Amino acid sequence: MTGTLYVVATPIGNLGDAGARAIETLKAVDLIACEDTRTTRTLLARFGIETRSVALHQHNEHAAAAKLIALLGEGKNLALVSDAGTPALSDPGAALVAAAHRAGVRVSPIPGPSAAVAAFSAAGFPASGFVFAGFLPASGAARKKALAALDSPWPVVLYEAPHRIAQTLADLLEKMGPQREIAIARELTKKFEEIARLPLGDARAWLQAPHRQQGEFVLVLAPGEAKPAAAAPDADQVLGVLLEALSPSEAAKLAARITGLPKNLLYRKALERSR
Asked: pTM of the full predicted structure?
């Protein structure tokens, strides 16, 4: 029998948010794989958890995963945690979870705190869901491409580091305009927590207040207007144009690619028009 890999959500700031089931699991498993053993040690000490921990971070994840899968294969139970929040959500852990599935190991989530969900719930944008974009690329073409994809009919949740928050808000202002609203959540669940919902045009002034460019940020961008779906090309009109230069067979083949309609149907139409 293989062991179980528990994916355990931990507090994003306030240690009082640790769930009873998460604490019980961390006490019961044979080993805890964590992003930073020094950070996790604070949580473990708070709740008297003596389980041994090992590092699993972005630089060693694939190598460490192989060793951990071997332990699971021996019947050991493991817990996976990140520094804060839910593992594998803009944090290491996905490679280990994927390897566990491939090895036939049982994976069991222990749900709990998530900065993305916490910020969305406090933003107040009515929607049945949201787009989670994580951290934007730092610069270059990849950043421009990511920014272009944020103009969504759904609220968009972003994570941002303090040294890039000003640039990200400036980029969003340029892309979305000053009237688009954004919720800025800083230091969620911690002593200096702040959540402000305001137009992007006012975000720079808000950020300039003392100490506001410190700490971790979650941004929730208000949804944009849904874009109307493009009208499908008229099949008869497309066929008429193509038949001026192509045989019925070739015209039907190309018209099928343009309109998405079945080629056989369009071929029959093309034959009728050719007669």
From this structure: 0.78
